[in-house]
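Hi,

Apologies if this is the wrong queue. I'm a grad student, and the batch job for Nucleotidyltransferase domain-containing protein from Rhodococcus globerulus produced an output file that my downstream script rejects. I'm not sure whether the problem is my script or the file. Here is the sequence I used:
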Amino acid sequence: MQLNRPFATVTPTLDGDVLAVLASAEVTFTISQVQRILATGSGEGIRKVLTRLVAQGVVRRDQVGRTNTYRLNTEHLAVEPIMALAQLNSTFLKRLEKHLDGWHKTLRYAAVFGSAATGRMKLDSDIDLFLVRAADAGNDGDDAWEERVTELARLVTAWTGNDGRVVEYAEDELRAAAAAGEPLLRDVAKQGLTVAGTRSWFNAQLRPAARRS
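Support response: The file is valid. Your script probably expects a header line. Output copied below for reference.
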């Protein structure tokens, strides 16, 4: 699936993309505004989609002067599944957070990075996960950690259909990579979506290296 195009999981047509725009905010949209947001689809194609959705009652059309405006009908029976689809990205992140919360003190930090974080996913994109294993992981051995990482990748694939690709560091490895100027760490700091730990902690691990450079 594409987290940036959640309706494509059930329909590959322009209808899903238009619904995603209308579900993104409780405001009205003109055809031109929808077209600018999507950056795909012709104005005529979007108009035809909106006409179909109005006929179904899912979308309400109002007229302001000579301009038609459109908004999602929040009283429609279908609005709950529509909103659930529109929010798949946040649902995925929340599910990740809940799962990783069960790792307790073994996990210092985790983030989603790459195309899943930047909104540029393609259908066959991997979902990239960045993990930092805590130095004070207690009695959790390497085997237990590896089992958790393997299960995490499996769950990501089960939830989305995309391969889960995990990049992991121990705390001391993270500091060494930061000192060496590892580009991946800058990408995570700039674009990553934190799902465990705090962004402030992660950024603090990079600052000494930044000062030296």
